Amino acid sequence: xxxxxxxxxxxxxxxxxxxxxxxxxxxxxxxxxxxxxxxxxxxxxxxxxxxxxxxxxxxxxxxxxxxxxxxxxxxxxxxxxxxxxxxxxxxxxxxxxxxxxxxxxxxxxxxxxxxxxxxxxxxxxxxxxxxxxxxxxxxxxxxxxxxxxxxxxxxxxxxxxxxxxxxxxxxxxxxxxxxxxxxxxxxxxxxxxxxxxxxxxxxxxxxxxxxxxxxxxxxxxxxxxxxxxxxxxxxxxxxxxxxxxxxxxxxxxxxxxxxxxxxxxxxxxxxxxxxxxxxxxxxxxxxxxxxxxxxxxxxxxxxxxxxxxxxxxxxxxxxxxxx
Length: 323
Known about the structure:
By secondary structure, this protein is of the alpha/beta class. 44% of the residues lie in helices and 15% in strands. It is built from 11 helices and 10 strands. The chain has helices at 2-27, 73-85, 103-120, 135-140, 167-173, 197-221, 227-233, 241-246, 256-267, 281-292, 297-307, and strands at 48-55, 89-98, 100-102, 124-133, 145-148, 153-155, 238-240, 252-253, 270-273, 314-316. The longest helix is centred in the N-terminal third of the chain and has 26 residues, at 2-27. The two termini are 38 Å apart.
């Protein structure tokens, strides 16, 4: 009973604290706790190689006062382009812990790494932590050398595009979706309509094109493998680190410290660890408050539907999600 009486005052106090933090945040003129460019004064004075953390889902979600991210796409790309212009930078070391992400962002990161290598001639190393699957492996194909923790899961070479069809549920509830479109395929993928064979073929063609792009990147990045060998491996399955070594998908298994030591030896430079993950002080407050509040059944269902891929091609290990 005592706790029940305190619920109202505590909630009110929490709201006041959050609002105060928000106004202080806005008043400071700081839009985000992340750098979207690199301040030269923040880098080491001498030679260094950048350690880029690619953690969580590879997608373009920019942190702000209300949102946290695990992987900051824009800040990562900005650092790569800055490092390419910095004579003190001697290479890039990718620390990957990701199930993959969208086709677009995975490819954009891959191309930025390739451009960095071509422009500078400096090495790019990839180290896989607990997971570097699908888009994570795609990005790694831009590296000169790929190593992994012995417990890592990788591979999942393939593309997935998912949609939620609720027509059966709508029929039970007596709900009918009505669309006015300019063409028979304009509304394809809608959750309330049955997909036609023509529409399924259209989506399949998109998946097939992205798949061939993925296979091409593996073929370029792993010259020891023939296309026929890659196609045999690229059925979407995940591989353990040892299986990946045995199949030529990665170069070796070692602890992270040993991989960093290799990069130090090759470059003759010290590691400069960048960290664009997390969120602003305000977003952390809102996130913490949200996590303490029990979710209703409706909120749980809404979050599940929002997290379901909807018509977007993904280089993502099915059954895993980023954070």
